[in-house]
Amino acid sequence: MAGRKSGLGRGLEALIPVDHPAAGYAVVQLDSIDPNPQQPRVHFDEAELESLAASIKSVGVLQPVVVRPSGDSYTLVAGERRCRAARLAGLTEIPAVIRESSDDESSLTEALIENVQREGLSPLEEAAAYEQLVAKYSMTHEAVGQAVGKSKSSVSNTIRLLQLPAEIQGMLNDGRIAMGHARALLGLDDSAYALHIAQRAAEDGWSVRQVEDAVRVRSEASPASTPRPGRPRTPRPAAIIELEERLAEHLAATVDIAYAGKAGKVTVKFADIDDLERIYKLLMT
Length: 285
Fold this sequence. Notes:
It is a single chain. By secondary structure, the protein is α/β, with parallel strands linked by helices. It has 3 domains: 2-102, Alpha-Beta Complex (Conserved hypothetical protein from pyrococcus furiosus pfu- 392566-001, ParB domain); 123-223, Arc Repressor Mutant, subunit A, CATH 1.10.10; 233-284, no CATH class. The protein is 51% helix and 13% strand. Strands 1-5-3-4-2 form a 5-stranded mixed beta sheet. Strands 6-7 form a two-stranded antiparallel sheet. Strand 6 (255-259) and strand 7 (264-268) form a beta hairpin. The chain is elongated.
């Protein structure tokens, strides 16, 4: 068989019998591996799978998948893309790390960690997986962050993406807008206007900063946030706007520079105390 003589798969098979007990490493039949019901990834890019399959044909499966025993078969814990690509490559078996036992929470967490570390999940898939850990297993945002190596604020902000209208979520999922655009749109209570801004951003190639500006203008124009009468804001020089954008990019936060000709004020927005500490460290380095 083509898969038995290439890469790590053949090396493991030579060292470890196929009927290895359910612990440690083994080469297992792909047909004996059931999908992970806790798999956070929903979309699999066909082109990427084809590319991975081609690599597997050439050098084999370089990293084992992770499975757990389930009766006479196995349940996949992590490695869905490798399994799919291995089947496309014509393999019938795959090297695997076999975990003796793993509950549903551990299974979801392990699958999530692998995908997050490999940057394999879309923002919405990541948000849904975080939300599942919170809702189903009563994990706090801080605990989820510790499990996947992210800050509490990062987890919280990612979960908030699920509050966006379905149309905007679809645009984010399709790559028509970026995560930065989507996070900026969370500042709007008007779903119809948020969709309008998202469509403008997608069609006209707006930057995240342009979306943030549109959101701010809308918020300042709303009755609840209309400022008291006073002098209009002094038009800002292009250099100030550029500095504002560069600072916002460096801090990964919303920054506003109010400029009055000679003096001014810099405002940096943060989500919570963790986000503030992150910004503080960036400013001090």
